[in-house]
Amino acid sequence: MDGRKMTTGLKSLIVCAAIAGLAVVQTLPSQETEPPKPRVQEEIFGFPADEQISHYLQNARNRTPIFVPGKCADNEILYPGDHESDWVCDCRPGHVYYPQTNKCYPLFMQGFCKSGEYVDVMRPSMIVNCTTNVCTGQNMVPYDGKCVELNRHNRICKRVGRVYWVIGVNATTLELGCVPPDATTMLHRVNGEDGEDEEPIQFEGANRCTNGTRTKYEGLC
């Protein structure tokens, strides 16, 4: 019995993992632990930072948008809220909010659209809609008069040093273009294409009031 209690106590260690390079902080096991609270819909869009996210989120002077596993709905990341310790879930860069389903979707992929279409926005209204995809094949989309594969170089983008840029979504214009592969890799990690994420990922330069976010759609900027 004592062995089981010791095991339970060890499991109550709270590990605060931040971005690579930050220290890992542990707290002593508590004698009594409260059962985890269920994650309700109201919590998805806004809540104060807590210890389980990490001390990094509580630093109001250096609050960079960040992905923390399990804290937001699919395709969302945490943005700094209106108060010093508040964080708000909203669409991550390259995604758009669709009010009919109350979800965020990646641009130029099928998302909520039917087969043979991809998620797009009407211009200049920026209303989210579905566009017929004239290209066939997985992740193939039209770009500059030809069919290209998303998140690949396609022999189109420039090379910077020894690194080729790839065709991806420009987070500012929400249009296809050549983007640095580092950004694309980061977005893939959030999607879980390289396995389930266990550590936070920073999104330098992301803005909750850019086109495509729920905040922008609801006129709260």
Automatic annotation (TrEMBL):
Signal sequence residues: 1-27
UniProt keyword Signal, yes or no: yes
Swiss-Prot/TrEMBL keywords: Signal
UniProt domain DUF4789: residue ranges: 71-151
InterPro entries: DUF4789
Protein name: Putative secreted protein
